[in-house]
């Protein structure tokens, strides 16, 4: 009879240690998931200013070229000035030559690369958030499930609230 009680006690202790280790494992996994999200958010934070600056540079290039072309075209239309027409043709030829020789301008290529990096980061952040929420769900399930809820009560493990995604309108100014 004593043997049966000792075996039952050993089984209970083994189960208790297993559940306690499971809580510890899930808590650490949640911390790791959260830190992965933080790393991705920092990378995104560092990437966005580069994208904005590259766009500014590209738009300034376009703005200068196009405003010069518009200015010459307006002058040519008003005054029928031959010199303005020649300069206008020269700018058009230069512009066409640039686009023919470099279909993807270096600045534009940079912007596309930065956009691709940003899209990739956004996907990685979304995936990391899904993992984080799944880890919290696993932990909370263990906290609420019988009989592991007894271990949770003894060691004061409580449910973890799910993260709330705060959204705000983002305005990028060039």
Short description:
The longest helix is centred in the first third of the chain and has 78 residues, at 2-79.
Tally of helical segments: 4
Poorly predicted runs are 167-174
The sequence of SSEs as H and E is: HHHH
Strand content: under 5%
CATH architecture: Orthogonal Bundle
The CATH topology label is Helix Hairpins
Question: What is the CATH class name?
Answer: Mainly Alpha
Helix fraction?
Answer: over 70%
Please describe the biggest sheet, giving its number of strands, its sense, and whether it closes into a barrel.
Answer: none
Radius of gyration: 31 Å
The geometry reads as rod-shaped
Word description of this protein:
It contains four helices and no strands. 83% of the residues lie in helices and 0% in strands. The protein has one domain: Helix Hairpins (Orthogonal Bundle). The protein has 174 residues and is mainly α.
């Amino acid at each position: 009879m004593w043997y049966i009680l000792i075996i039952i006690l050993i089984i209970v202790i083994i189960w208790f240690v297993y559940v306690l280790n499971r809580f510890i494992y899930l808590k650490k996994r949640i911390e790791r998931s959260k830190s992965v999200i933080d790393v991705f958010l920092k990378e995104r934070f560092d990437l966005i200013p580069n994208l904005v600056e590259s766009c500014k540079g590209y738009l300034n290039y376009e703005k200068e070229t196009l405003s010069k072309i518009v200015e010459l075209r307006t002058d040519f239309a008003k005054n029928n000035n031959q010199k303005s027409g020649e300069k206008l043709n020269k700018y058009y030829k230069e512009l066409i030559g640039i686009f023919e020789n470099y279909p993807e301008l270096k600045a534009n290529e940079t912007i596309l690369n930065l956009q691709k990096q940003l899209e990739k980061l956004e996907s990685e952040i979304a995936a990391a958030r899904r993992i984080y929420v799944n880890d919290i769900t696993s932990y909370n399930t263990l906290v609420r499930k019988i009989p592991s809820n007894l271990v949770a009560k003894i060691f004061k493990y409580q449910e973890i609230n799910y993260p709330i995604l705060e959204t705000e309108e983002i305005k990028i100014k060039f």
